[in-house]
Write a structure and sequence with these properties.
It is a single chain. By secondary structure, the protein is an alpha/beta fold. Helix content is 16%, strand content 36%. The strands form three sheets. Strands 2-1-4-7 form a four-stranded mixed β-sheet, with no helix packed on it. Strands 3-9-8 form a three-stranded mixed β-sheet, with no helix packed on it. A two-stranded antiparallel ribbon has the order 5-6. The N and C termini lie far apart (77 Å). Bound molecules: copper (II) ion (CU). Copper (II) ion (CU) binds next to loops.
Length: 118
């Protein structure tokens, strides 16, 4: 008789904690997908893109600024096309696809540049 009670006393905490473990803990921590973007700049000056070739990581927003007194555009076939940029105007494009993207000024096609996305 005494043995049975003592056994019950021994196992009672386990039974109670066993029940306690059944409380469902909900994980409310949400993982935020932070996309790290770094800004990279290309200037248009003296009929040239500077830097002429720019390497960026995927997700990078590249901003072109026209520093020439002449109007320019930034056009990459099948990818983007800026409006006519007057002096001081900017154009931005975010590169999400890996690859090499050649672009030109549509008004002066001899002005060429390249963005490499790695
Ligand atoms: Cu131009």
């Amino acid at each position: 008789m005494f043995k049975k009670i003592s056994l019950l006393l021994v196992f009672l905490p386990f039974i109670l904690t066993g029940c306690g473990n059944q409380t469902i803990t909900t994980n409310t921590t949400t993982t935020s997908n932070t996309i790290t973007t770094s800004s990279n700049s290309v200037t248009i000056q003296n009929f040239a893109f500077t830097p002429q070739e720019l390497t960026v990581t995927a997700g990078t927003t590249v901003t072109w600024t026209n520093n020439d007194n002449m109007i320019h555009t930034i056009v990459s076939q099948n990818l983007f096309e800026s409006k006519i940029l007057n002096k001081g105007d900017k154009f931005s494009f975010t590169f999400t696809t890996l690859g090499e993207f050649d672009y030109i000024c549509d008004i002066h096609p001899s002005i060429k540049g390249k963005i490499i996305v790695k």
